[in-house]
Design goal:
31% strand; 4-stranded antiparallel sheet; mainly beta; 209 residues
Length: 209
């Protein structure tokens, strides 16, 4: 017998216990919703809508998919942010990183916790692997502030939301930069650091290259 659908009557933005209780539970695959993050085309400088698509409970069900906005992300957002998903036995999250001069980090569960990167990354390359989220600078620089070291960091959700100080800060783990980053370049290359175009970062579970 196919699993029953979760009723939508009490489906709230802040209620994610049932939907995210155990992301590895195969019995809930048909009832899990799909979330999309879309840029809002309105007067707000930087805003994103979180859209929820209700999945069909039974294979071959003719019931149309229902799409609705469950949240609008405005506080702490910047134009050009990148979003990935992260999950562990504690739940699932949408993680947004990057943007402009105030480039930060958003963790959405779907209740939002606003945090900040140790150093802003303008347009980072994000990789989600299991309970880890990796952020690597897309335009590594040698000058302070934007896209300066650390160029490569990871965020672990192994023990839940990786926040401290009542959710006001997140502890990113610094990783060794790839060999083509500024600290390994000659003086000419150091003054003209390369940008990453159509790259394919390869990571190992031991954080080695």
């Amino acid at each position: 017998m196919a699993p029953k659908r979760k009723p939508d009557d009490d489906d709230d933005v802040g209620e994610s216990t049932d939907e995210f209780a155990n992301p590895f539970d195969d019995t809930m695959q048909f009832t899990k919703p799909v979330y999309l993050v879309a840029v809002r085309d309105d007067d707000q400088a930087a805003a994103y809508s979180v859209l929820k698509i209700d999945a069909a409970a039974v294979a071959g069900n003719d019931e149309p998919r229902r799409v609705r906005a469950v949240a609008v992300l405005t506080t702490g957002t910047e134009p050009g942010m990148s979003f990935v998903t992260a999950r562990s036995r504690h739940g699932s999250w949408i993680v947004g990183v990057g943007g402009g001069l105030r480039a930060g980090t958003i963790i959405f569960d779907p209740g939002t916790i606003i945090t900040r990167l140790g150093y802003p990354k303008h347009k980072p390359v994000l990789i989600s692997h299991g309970s880890e989220v990796y952020a690597i600078s897309g335009t590594p620089r040698v000058k302070p502030s934007m896209d300066c070291e650390p160029w490569f960091e990871s965020l672990s959700f192994k023990d839940g939301v990786p926040s401290k100080e009542c959710g006001r800060w997140v502890s990113w783990h610094h990783l060794p930069p790839p060999p083509f980053f500024p600290c390994f370049l000659n003086p000419y290359e150091f003054r003209n650091p390369p940008e990453i175009f159509q790259s394919h970062p390869m990571l190992s579970l031991a954080h080695t290259f």
